[in-house]
Amino acid sequence: MNKNEKPFSLKGKGAAVGIVICFVAVIVMVGAFTFNNYQKKLDEQLAKAEEQTEQLAKEKSEATTANDIVLPEAEGNTSTENETEDNESTTPESTADNSATASGASDVWFSEESVLEWPASGAILINYSMDKTVYFSTLEQYKYNPALVIGGEVGETIAASAAGIVTNVEQSAQTGTTVTLDMGNGYTAVYGQLKEVPLQIGDYVAAGETVGYLSEPTKYYSVEGTNLYFEILKDGEPVNPLDFMES
Known about the structure:
Organism: Faecalicatena orotica
Strand content: 25-35%
Largest sheet: 10 strands, antiparallel
Number of strands: 12
InterPro entries: Cell_wall_metabolism_enzyme, Dup_hybrid_motif, M23ase_b-sheet_dom
Keywords: Membrane, Transmembrane, Transmembrane helix
Number of helices: 2
Distance between the termini: 165 Å
CATH class of one domain: Mainly Beta
């Protein structure tokens, strides 16, 4: 009985070894196939990457060449020449304006001995009064008056009583469109109740030149009628304009 079992055992072991060898062979074949596919895909990806790199390099080279064509040195020089020509064409005007402003500023010097020209066509409606109150018909009250309220006609030209530099152009509820001129040496002239003012801050205005045109009176002077509000200040304090006018 034992003799018969041995051959059977050996035969069974041989079969098992054969199966293992076949299994290993299959694994090796599958691994080799998988590795070959992976290697093939890797080669394809590397080839594609090299192709893309060459394409980018080519496009960069073409772009550089295009820039060289679009922006030649000659065009840059032409632009510079044009800018130079523009500067040369505007420089004389700017120089003339600056010279005029500087010349005008040198003429602005008002003093106690200076004389003011009469700024409007009419007579005094309300006199300057800072030592006692005067009656304002529209307001129906007595109050101090730091300026001359001078009658006139709507649309008449208001000229500068003395040379000055425009320091302010504003809209006031009491005096309407109002222009302030710095006459130098601490003196300032204020022209109110105007319209169509042809001036800007910084402009030089010679004596007798237009400051603006007389407008309709504001609601503060409706009873008094059309008038010019004319105020003179010294270091910010109102002074009597009549003190600087020839009698």
